[in-house]
Design brief:
The strands form 7 sheets. The protein has a 5-stranded antiparallel β-sheet with strand order 18-19-20-21-22, with no helix packed on it. A 4-stranded antiparallel β-sheet has the order 1-29-28-27, with no helix packed on it. About 15% of the residues lie in helices and about 50% in strands.
Length: about 425
């Protein structure tokens, strides 16, 4: 009997150890489930932005002669999609953004339509929707107001006048606009980022402007003719203390001045430290150097994004599958989310993520919602690290109890015979 008890103790210890190992494995990394939220053969999803429990995105009609873009909002909790805005004749909707209970976009003359002869009819209109009650208003702004960005209770918008672009903020509770600054060189007003009183924009350099302090800080300096190369920032995003950006470098041959190479360096800029950190394009980790392998891998990255907690981008080596690279700068944890087909336009807010999925050679994109640690999944792919099922440890415990019971019963029968 003592021998049996010893065997039982050894067996129990082994089972507990195995259970602990599998429990740790199950908790080692989160899973992301992919849910296709909008797939319509007549429309193509575009420009998703996510905040809280809502995803705003554009719906482009495949028949461009019929009308311009609609604006749609997907509610995560109710799993429903509603049309928030429809353009007037010969107009289109674009520039959608969302923050908390507010969503914005603007109506403008569509590129595919002929502009009206009466210029007063072609004015831009910025729309503001309160998601808490569904009310929609059109604040009285400049007739050329475009590319609204919303943060908390204020809207940043731009007004172009030739080569000059002026940025304004519209304070929602006070129903008034305030001029912020004028820029002689603003590469892309649509790409400007606005959050918590900070404006990130690409002009002569990638710069950060703080509204309250009126301080302008160079985040990344564009270079020309340095070591036979030119560099500039191609894409960027900002939220909270983080700005993530892609610095593109083109290298020229010494002899004939032809392009001999090009690569992209993903970087994290911490606003509180006024410091940039180079990141590995394939893993997202901090890196102190950039190898030839890294330069090659950088050809496949696009769509940088951040929610102020995590940063990331899309990594696509093939048309059949893409990876969403996620990196937490504070914990230095990384994760990969697999997206079937070609991914683009990714954005994140905490445990929720939105991304576009397209199947080449089609130009039509489908909107996919990714939920962290969710069970529902109607797409193939989506797992990051920690591939063991969270319920595996429970199964191990049940199996161990059954085996233990069988061992004890067998030993009792053997002792009775003796």
């Amino acid at each position: 009997m003592k021998e049996t008890a010893g065997k039982i103790m050894i067996f129990v210890c082994c089972v507990l150890l195995a259970t602990a190992i599998f429990t740790v494995s199950a908790a080692a990394g989160p899973q992301w489930s992919l849910i296709e939220v909008y797939n319509n053969s007549s429309f193509s999803a575009d420009s998703p932005e996510i905040s809280g429990g809502n995803i705003i995105f554009l719906l482009a009609n495949d028949n461009i002669s019929s009308k311009g873009n609609d604006v749609a909002i997907y509610n995560i909790s109710s799993e429903t999609t509603a049309i928030a805005g429809t353009p007037a004749q010969n107009m289109t909707l674009t520039g959608d953004d969302i923050s908390g209970n507010y969503a914005v976009w603007f109506e403008t003359t569509g590129m595919e339509f002929t502009a009206p002869e009466d210029e007063t009819d072609s004015r831009n209109t910025v729309y503001l929707m309160d998601l808490s009650d569904g009310t929609k208003t059109a604040p009285y702004l400049n007739i050329n107001a475009e590319w609204p960005k919303i943060s908390e209770n204020s809207i940043l918008y731009s007004v172009e006048n030739g080569l000059n672009t002026t940025l304004y903020t519209y304070i929602i509770p006070e129903n008034r606009s305030e001029k912020i600054m004028s820029l002689n060189e603003l590469f892309d007003p649509a790409g400007v980022r606005y959050d918590s009183g900070n404006i990130l924009y690409a002009g002569e350099n990638l710069s950060l402007y703080n509204i309250s302090s009126r301080k302008n800080t160079v985040v990344c300096e564009f270079e020309a003719g340095i070591n036979n190369s030119n560099s500039a920032v191609s894409d960027y995003d900002m939220k909270g203390d983080y700005a993530v950006y892609f610095k593109n470098t083109v290298v020229f041959d010494d002899k004939d001045n032809k392009i001999s190479g090009r690569f992209t360096e993903p970087s994290l800029y911490k606003i509180s430290e006024n410091k940039s950190y180079l990141l590995n394009p394939k893993t997202g980790n901090y890196t102190g150097s950039y190898s030839e392998e890294d330069k090659k891998a950088s050809e496949y990255i696009s769509s940088p994004f951040t929610d102020g907690k995590n940063i990331g981008w899309v990594y696509s080596e093939s048309l059949s599958e893409s990876e969403i690279i996620l990196f937490n700068p504070k914990t230095e944890e990384t994760a990969n989310v697999t997206i079937p087909k070609t991914a683009s336009g990714a954005c994140i807010d905490g445990d929720n993520m939105a991304v576009l999925k397209s199947d080449y050679p089609s130009f039509r994109s489908e909107l996919v919602y990714a939920k962290k640690n969710a069970e529902k999944n109607n797409l193939s792919g989506g797992l990051t690290s920690g591939k063991t099922s969270p319920g595996f440890s429970a199964v191990m415990c049940i199996v161990s109890v059954l085996v233990l019971y069988a061992v004890v019963q067998a030993d009792c029968k053997r002792n009775k015979r003796q």
